[in-house]
Amino acid sequence: MVAGALLRGPADDRSPQEWARGLGVSPRTISRAFRSSTGLSSAQWRRSLRVHRALALLGKGHEVQEVAERLGCARTSTFIDAFRRVMGTTPGGYVGSLRADR
Asked: Do residues 79 and 73 touch, judged by C-beta distance below 8 A?
């Protein structure tokens, strides 16, 4: 249920505690369910989802600021930092590499 909601809206920033409260379960139940079904913590899974969405949107030509907003980042710089940590390059660097490959 949580994963499905995040897939539909990756900008949803509810914490595991908020999800648990809404579902009437413990936060640990949410954590165990994510780890069991994905092998990742909920934070790692959410980060992975957002990066995959970012890659798709950037590949379609969306601007970095628009992608950051669509993924729920309050600041574009926060998005750029998170993207760099996962991908080893900035969104602009990624887009540049796409253009160079064409």
From this structure: yes
d(CA 63, CA 51): 15
Q: What is the spatial distance between Cα 73 and Cα 48, in angstroms, rounded to a whole number?
A: 14
Q: pLDDT digit string (tens) for 85-102?
A: 999 999 999 998 887 876
Task: Give, in words, the CATH class of 2-101.
Answer: mainly alpha
- Indicate the SS3 state at residue 38: helix
CB-based contact 80:90 (threshold 8 Å) = yes
Task: Look at residue 46 and give its three-state secondary structure.
Answer: helix
What does the alpha-carbon distance between residue 68 and residue 38 come to, in Å, rounded to a whole number?
A: 25
Amino acid at residue number 54: A
Distance CA 3, CA 46 (A): 8
Cβ atoms of residues 69 and 13 within 8 Å = no
Spatial separation of the C-alpha atoms in residues 80 and 78, rounded to whole Å? 5
